[in-house]
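Quick note —
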Amino acid sequence: MVIHLLFFLNQYLSQYTFHYNPQHKPAYSKMVLIKTFVCALLTLSVATCSPLVNRDATTVLKDLTSISTALDTLTASVTAYTGGLIPALTISTNQGALDNAVKKTTIDVNAATAFTPTESTNVVAAIAVQVPKIQATLAALIVKVNVE
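Predicted structure written out below.
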């Protein structure tokens, strides 16, 4: 199922690739950033883990808080973007931080022991909080597609 979703997203987002137009300055393709962002979030379900450290629901909740913070930072930097290389590098750095947070969470989730019903409820609630933040980040990215 995840593979099909990744394939669909890749096909959908690849139609927004950069095409050089000699009449205009080359622009940084923001759709590549969106594609990377979506794929990074989907790695939550397919990455491998390291069983050397004991992980539990508390660790996963802390990791989800890290993702939330990284999403907020990325959304703020994308919203503030008005063009230029330095702000684009800030966005790229923030996207990398989000990617790292997602990868760490994936490793911790896969290595965690079974959660109690209460812990499971808390983890699901923490994930549900991320959905509007992800939507806000994607919306901010889409608004900036035409910024050069």
